Amino acid sequence: MKPYVIVCACLCVCVCVLMQNVALSRTADQSSSHPDGPARNAVDGNRDPNFAKGSCSLTHQESNPWWRVDLQNVYTVTAVMITNRNEFENRLDGAEIWIGNSLEDNGAKKSSFCLPHFVFSFLILFSNSEGRYVTVFLPGTKKILTLCEVEVFPSDYADGNHVPNLALRGKAFQSSTASGSSSASKAIDGRRDSTYYKGFCTHTLEETNPWWRLDLRETHAVTSVKVTNRGDCCAQRLDGAEIRIGNSAENNGNDNPKCASISHIGAGKTVTFYCEGGSVMGRFVNVIIPGPKKILTLCEVEVYADQ
């Protein structure tokens, strides 16, 4: 799949603020590191192009330097935004962006794009480029690779219907967490993988009325919610769960109006629940299981609203 390109920093304001940067604070590596330019500086959320401010990565001079971020999940990447260093803007000329799931050749597999000369920020739009690793590779001898920010934006469209999944833009919380690999954010990572032990699902402790809450950051007329159930065991745990939507944060949002009830979702299945009455206005989307000695596990929650 070949990407197509739009150049301008202001486009990022229009497009990228609506999407989740999945590279932010992820694990980054590079072929070599200058003491003042570790790889992590390019995923710190700071686009300052002044190297002296301490927010850019920097390799030593070498042949074929590279920088790579591990997104920790596989995403269908829609766009990558690169912020260049302002003092040596031509150093990135001819660099290549690689997206894929293999670490062979330091991740130089799958879809790619060659960067032209640019001064500040460059937004590259990709068409269905799937991968866990995003690599910036600079071919040639006596090269220095500097990146002041790398932002990666996944597709937030589902089923090809061009309706955005609002959950990808939100922030998730839950009543308790069984382990560090089962945090609330796992239900909005863009993956419907239903195998809990792969690390893509949430998991609370056994408790009374466990809940999971999504903050959409603004009010929407929510029409439907898609829920993916755990597939490797315990599908019945979600039986009787309720989806509640509203603007109140009291009682952790669990007193908001009910959108729908979950009678049963088969193991590993994704089911769409349509809100009663057509839509429910709200900023918070909750999934709660009423009753004692309950465990709440969600492998993905997707939220759709009237446009």
From TrEMBL:
GO terms for biological process: regulation of cellular defense response; regulation of complement activation, lectin pathway. Keywords: Calcium, Disulfide bond, Lectin, Metal-binding, Signal. Residues 28-47 are annotated as: Disordered. Residues 19-159, 163-307 form the Fucolectin tachylectin-4 pentraxin-1 domain. The keyword Cytoplasm does not apply. The keyword Metal-binding applies. Pfam families: F5_F8_type_C_2 (PF22633). GO terms for molecular function: fucose binding; metal ion binding. Residues 1-25 form the signal peptide. InterPro entries: BG_Antigen-Binding_Lectin (IPR051941), FTP1 (IPR006585), Galactose-bd-like_sf (IPR008979). Homotrimer. Belongs to the fucolectin family. Acts as a defensive agent. Recognizes blood group fucosylated oligosaccharides including A, B, H and Lewis B-type antigens. Does not recognize Lewis A antigen and has low affinity for monovalent haptens. This is Fucolectin tachylectin-4 pentraxin-1 domain-containing protein. It comes from Labrus bergylta (ballan wrasse). The lineage of its organism: Eukaryota, Metazoa, Chordata, Craniata, Vertebrata.
